[in-house]
Amino acid sequence: MCTLMFFQIIISIFLSAYLSIYFSMLNSNYYLMFLFIPFFVIFMILTLILIIIYCDIVCLIINNKNHNYNKYADHLVKNLVTILLKILNVKVIKQNFDIVKDDNVLYVANHVSNLDPIVFIKIFKNKLTVVSKPENFKIPFIGPIIKTAGYISINRNSPREGAKAIFKARDFLKNDICNVLIFPEGTRNKTDNILLEMKAGSLKPAFSSNKKIVVCSIHNTKNYKFKLFSHKVFIKAIKVLDPKDYESDVFAIKEIQNLIVNDLKQDNAR
Question: What range defines the domain where residue 248 resides?
Fold first, then answer.
């Protein structure tokens, strides 16, 4: 369990227990002990806000103006993700990742929910940066943290800015700085189709750096609802591709699309 989450749970348990016991004794009604549950949720949320503020202060001190990958800020992001998924009661299960033998590779996956990058970060203990839309970097308090961690903003409406993002992802891979996660569909799939058309350009970081591509599928994030028992999300590594085996990224993206579609279809058939 991450350090920040450990302290968050300890503080929330202590304050919740104290207040629930206090109110039950004050009113001589032991049923008020059950107030521990709502108190615990409230204090978990409040302490999360305090942790986010702490992370923002740390990021100001780091002052990563060039937005290069920063190991400590990446660690903070992973802490926040762990806490958030605990509050949302989401359990992430990874499958078949033993096929991934290399580090500093390009991960690609389907994208249907805002939970997708969050759950992927959760399972990833190694260095990771995510290629994300500019709007995410404008989220109050959260934006500065992911920016300091070295997450890459990609503006797909501007070819020039999009190229800059791809080149930055390539440099991260080429110089063995960190792994990169990108969603080739370019946006969340809000349609009834299994998958949107994937962009071949999203594979350029791997092709130009001669790094491998790990094709993944994310299951059960679109229909997330808070449950008393955990909501299970599955992330599966389907196949590892070597750019050297393809004439171009156009041929590779077609295989990736087929691999993910077939895997999602199998999941729907269960």
Answer: 89-269
